[in-house]
Amino acid sequence: MTASLQNGASYPSNIETRLFINNEFVPSQSGKKFDVVNPATEKVTASVSEADGADVDAAVRAAKTAFPAWSALSGFQRAGYFYKLADLVESSNDEFAKLEAVSMGKPVGKYTEGTNMARFIRYMAGKAADVKGESSLQTPNFVNFTFRQPYGVCAAITPWNAPVTELFFKVAPAVLAGNTIVVKSSEKAPLTSLLVAKLCREAGIPAGVINVLSGTGPICGAAIASHMEIRKISFTGSARTGRAIKRAALESNLKHVTLELGGKSPLIIFEDAELDKAASAAAFSILYNSGQVCIASTRIYVHASILERFCQLLVAAVRKQGGNPSEGNDPLVSTTVRGPQADKGQFESIMTYIAGSRKAGDQILVGGAREGDRGFYIQPTIILEPDEHSAVMREEIFGPVACVRSFQTEEEVLRLANDTEYGLYASAFTRDLSRAMRMARRLESGTVGLNCTSPMMTLDMPFGGIKQSGEGRENGQHALDDWTELKTVYVGL
C-alpha cells in the first residue's frame, strides 16, 4: 500500500523498521532507534530499531542454530530457495526503488537494482552445485582429494550507496555455499535490507539462515567484527572502517575478511581515442548514483593535444546527462535523472573539497555549487588542472566531482595513474590495440576498462581491489569459493 503525495508521486507506507532475527521482526533489545532522513526533503522518513551487541549475540545464536541443517543440504536444494527469492526480488523492484528514493535519494526512474539482483541470484543459484575440489592419484597407494566446505556463521556489513546490490553480492554466494549469515546494513539506508529480509521469509528460507540488523558502525558493526563465533566477514565501505574491521578480526578470533574499499579511479584519454564516446562515458561515470560510487572515474588524464576539445565534449555531456533541475528533481518522480547526495555529512564533505579547490585557484569548468535551496543537491563539477598532490586529486570525494589533467607521454600518464594508494578500477580509451593491452597489464587496479569505464561490470566476472582498495573478490565462481574453506583429505588404499 502507498500514500499519495501532493506532487503526484507515491510514497512507501508500512515501512518495516525492526530487526530481523530468526525469521521474526523484533525491536532492538535496548529499545533505541535512529532516524532515516530523506536527503531530498531533509525530513525524517522513518525511525529504525538500532541494534547493539545484545542483538548481534541473538542473531549469531540464530545463525549458529540454523547452520547444521542448512549446510547439510545439497547445493541444488539451497538453490531452490534462491530461485524463489529471485522471483520475489524481481517483482519488488518498484518497492525497492521507492524505499531507496526516500532513504538515500536514488531516482525511481533510474532504479534497476531489484531486476539486476534477480538475475544475479539466479546466476549464483546455478553455480551453487559447482563448489567442488580436486583429486590426485600421484601418491602410490593413496587417493587424495580436496573439497570446499562452508565457514559456518558469517557476517556482511553493507554500504549505503548500493544497499540491495551489495547485500546480494555477499549474501547470495555466502548462503548458497552453505553458510548462515548476519547482515548489518548502513544506518543511512537500512530500509531495503529489511525488505530483503521479508522476501527471504516469503521464499521459505529457514529461520536463522539470514538475519538482518540495522545499526551504527561503532556499536553494531564493532560487535560483529569482534564476535568470537563469526568465522568470516565481508565489508564494503571506506578504507578507514575497513582497517578497523580487519584489526578487530585479528584481535578476536582471526576471522577471515573480505574488503571492498575506496577508489580514486584514473581514466586515460589518448590522442587517438573516440572522443565523443569517451566524454559520454566519463560523464556517466561521475554522474551515476550522484557520484556516490567507489569505482567512479574521478581522475581524468587527457593527452595535451586533445585537451581543449575533450573538455568541451565532457562539459556538454555532463550538462546533458545531469538533468535540468528546473524541471524537478524529486527522486520519487520517474522523470528525475539525478538525485541528491545521501545525507548532510556527505553533502558538506563534497562542498568542502570544492571550496578547497576554488581557494587554490583551480579552474572549474562546470558546476561547483549547491543546487537549489532544499535537499542535499550538488551541481556536477569538473575541475581543470588541479595540483597532482591536492586533496581533490588524492582523496576519494564520493560525489559528482571529477578532475581533468593533461599528459604528454604514455610513461608519464602511467606514473600519474598509478600514483595512488587505491587500486579498484582504471580505464583507458585508445584505438591502438597494443597500447590498450599495455594499459591492461600496467595499470595497478583490480579491474581495467578498455574503451569503456565504470560502472561497467558483469555478474560473472570477479570484482575487487588491490593496494588499499581491498582484498578478496566478489561475483562469479570466485565469490562462492571465497565463502568456503579448502580441506585436503588423504585416503590410504
TrEMBL record:
Record: active site: E260
InterPro entries: Ald_DH/histidinol_DH, Ald_DH_C, Ald_DH_CS_CYS, Ald_DH_CS_GLU, Ald_DH_N, Aldehyde_DH_dom
UniProt-recorded Gene Ontology molecular function terms: aldehyde dehydrogenase (NAD+) activity
PROSITE patterns on file: ALDEHYDE_DEHYDR_CYS, ALDEHYDE_DEHYDR_GLU
Keywords annotated in UniProt: Oxidoreductase
Span of domain Aldehyde dehydrogenase: 25-489
Enzyme class: oxidoreductase
Reaction catalysed by this enzyme: an aldehyde + NAD(+) + H2O = a carboxylate + NADH + 2 H(+)
UniProt-listed Enzyme Commission number(s): 1.2.1.3
Pfam families assigned to the protein according to its UniProt record, in alphabetical order: Aldedh
Protein family according to the UniProt entry: Belongs to the aldehyde dehydrogenase family.
PANTHER family xrefs: ALDEHYDE DEHYDROGENASE-RELATED
Protein name: aldehyde dehydrogenase (NAD(+))
Biological source species: Fonsecaea monophora
